[in-house]
Amino acid sequence: MGQKNASHVVVKGETIYAIAKKYQITPDDIIKNNPDVINGIKENQTLLIPVKSLFPTAVTTANDTTYVVQKGETLYAISKKFGISVEAIIAKNPLVKDTLSEGVQLVLPTKKNLAPAIISNKENADLISTVSKTKVRNLVLFLPFNINKIENDSLKSRNEHLKTNKFLNLTLDFYAGALMAIDSAKVLGLPVNVKVYDVESSKYSSNVASIIAKNDFSNVDAVIGPFQNSFVESTAQLLSKYNIPVISPLSKEKGLALPNLYYAIPSEEQLKTKLLQHFKAKNGNAVAIISTKKVASKEYLLKNYPWVKQAVFNDKGALDVAQFKGQLVKGKTNFVILEIEKASTILSITNILKGLQKEYEIQLVVFEVYDALNFEEIPIKNLTTLKMMYPSTSKVIETPEELLFAAAYKKINNSAPNSVAIKGFDITFDTILRMCQENGFADSVSKYKTEYVENSFDYSNENGANNNNGCYLLYYDNDLTIKKVQ
């Protein structure tokens, strides 16, 4: 197996010696991997950095601790061991997402040194009413169409690519939604110029650096994309000299904490925080019924939310109903978190919960709607009677305006909009409106929360990263519809 490498994009004024110091390697290590740099390095040049020293000197404080990675450990396992988020580890060790090797020393923030996931109380703002039309704004979309690869593919026709290439279809769906947002901006008379660049990308390479090097981005007000996290990070790095906001539109992965990089998709940590904060706001009683195999979920709650009670199972692997009943509280909503992998066990427990509703107010809760809940043997009535609640990055279309959007999209594209197409509209429209505020995008995200067809945007800075906390709580209602928790 050959040596793995990470990539580093040279920024203006950097030297080989400065880069070597950053990654705790020698200039010779860089030259061995990049022989052409013997004659010097250039701005925007991509260098290969040896994996043995992938971790640049982390920013530490007096409250930080260090930890040596053990054999076979993952970021997720370490995050659960110390009760901190993966995002917090990456924020302290920016390149840890690329590789994790035994013996590597990580800097870990202590719990008291960690800013909690923030769910703000900002009111939704109508940015249309406050736009400024005095200045032309420029928006760039980096979308991975990979047209050249499709044109040069002698084995598949365009139609075959459309039928089989899921990534291409995802791109086209997002673009269809973005086009509707751009048209909406034109109808509003917003002075916005839009350029779309085809990002030719594979799993490990992209032409983003080349596009930026060959074009003038000095007057660009915001960039949406690319889709893959590593490429959107390099885009933000390359455009940091202009302080251009770069929006990561679809990736759930959170990586480098860069001042001009905005993650539009809320993280799992933020979704769970939204849920647990709701329990507290409702002065509810929370009990978790978690399978013995779901160790990570159990430890997550014990370390972060010790006030959540833990149900137990008897020797036969069944829920100890008597003990569980003793954990319920009359006069309060009892939020029962369920994480069970067997459909038969889910059926048994939901039947028990339905029976206990005669004595207690009970609402079923899951961290996500996982596959086992959809098995045919589990009646949907069990989930609706218990008003099963879960956190989500998007809500359901319900208002007349949202329904009009869906109808207009279908008329143009001959199909109903899926979640990716709606994200294409919501993210693009939100970006355009924020760009067109008097003081631009960055000022707007610091002040205003917004909501559109399915998605909400409530950005906050956590451990140096700009994350969207705009998420929802949804529940299954008795009329077999999904509704938003008010």
Distance between the termini: 54 Å
Which class best fits the helix and strand makeup?
A: alpha/beta
Query: In the CATH hierarchy, what is the superfamily of the largest domain?
Result: Response regulator
CATH C-level class of the largest domain: Alpha Beta
Number of domains: 3
- Helical region count? 17
Mean pLDDT: 84
CATH topology of the largest domain: Rossmann fold
Rg, rounded, reads 25 Å
Broad shape: globular
Architecture overview:
- It contains 17 helices and 20 strands.
- With 486 residues, the chain is of the alpha/beta class.
- A seven-stranded mixed beta sheet has the order 6-5-7-8-9-18-17, sandwiched between helices. A four-stranded parallel beta sheet has the order 11-10-12-13, with helices on both faces. A three-stranded antiparallel beta sheet has the order 14-19-20.
- A hairpin with a 5-residue loop joins strand 19 and strand 20.
- The protein is globular and about 75 Å long.
- The termini are far apart.
- Mean pLDDT is 84; it is low at 52-60 and 112-119.
Q: How would you briefly describe this protein structure?
A:
The protein has three domains: 5-113, LysM domain (Membrane-bound Lytic Murein Transglycosylase D, Chain A); 127-265 and 399-465, 3-Layer(aba) Sandwich (Rossmann fold), CATH 3.40.50; 269-392, Rossmann fold. By secondary structure, the chain is an alpha/beta fold.
